Amino acid sequence: DPLSDLYMEGFSITFEATKECYRQDFRRNLLYYDLTNHVIIDKTGYGVNDLRTGQLRFSNAPSTDFDLWAGEGEHRADKMLRYAKFIVRAEVKHEPLKVDKDEIAFVVRTLTKDLRSENAESLKTLWPHALKQCMNSQPHLCALHKWVCEQSGHSWWQEWLPFVKSHVKDESWLYSLRADDRIHARNPSEASSASDIIAQLKLLDPFGNG
Question: Which DSSP string corresponds to 82-105?
């Protein structure tokens, strides 16, 4: 209402904040700038602080209703992949984000489940868009690989590989990633027997070609 004391020309302030918090992804992305009045509108009340303190929090935090935040199908897949993208991008910039342990655990559980279920199709559809930077840049791919392995080990990276291989700009990057991960997991020089050394050397060949 233009006659109301609450009216700001050029920008509606009739936000449904609760609805927005569950539809959007992260609190830091729920900031709006009113070009007419030169005002930053922080719809969650946390977004500006998250940016200042380097935090990545779900848009409905501090609520712990993670399933309602995630949604279903492609909507859920997009949020999970975007979470990984934000982590990776910050890592490459040497500005690691602070995360909530329960939220990141939920993302890992959900991605693990979706990689093995019918929602994998949604992941495949959104992968090229959500993780485009990770697929086109070796530093970003390395950071993605590091994050995946840190969260749930190298075996989880194996589950990501079919999705990654379909879109990575240079597949040769994957060779160094997989070999490097195994070298750091255990150095062949630490093996206790000849058979153990052979087993370790075989691990250095990513695709088992001898």
Answer: HHHHHHHHHHHTT-PPEE-HHHHH
- How buried is residue 177: exposed, middle or buried, by Cβ count under 10 Å (0-12/13-18/19+)? buried
| Best-predicted range by mean pLDDT (40-49, 70-79, 157-166, 186-195) | 157-166
User: In terms of C-beta density within 10 A (0-12 exposed, 13-18 middle, 19 or more buried), how is residue 155 classed?
Assistant: exposed
Residue 115 CB neighbours (<10 A)? 16
- Which CB contacts under 8 angstroms, 24+ apart, belong to 36-39? 36/8, 36/9, 36/10, 36/11, 37/8, 37/9, 37/10, 37/11, 39/8, 39/11
**Three-class SS state of 183:** helix
The pTM score is: 0.75
* Secondary structure element (H or E) that encloses residue 56, with its range: strand 55-56
Please report the pLDDT score of residue 82 as a whole number: 95
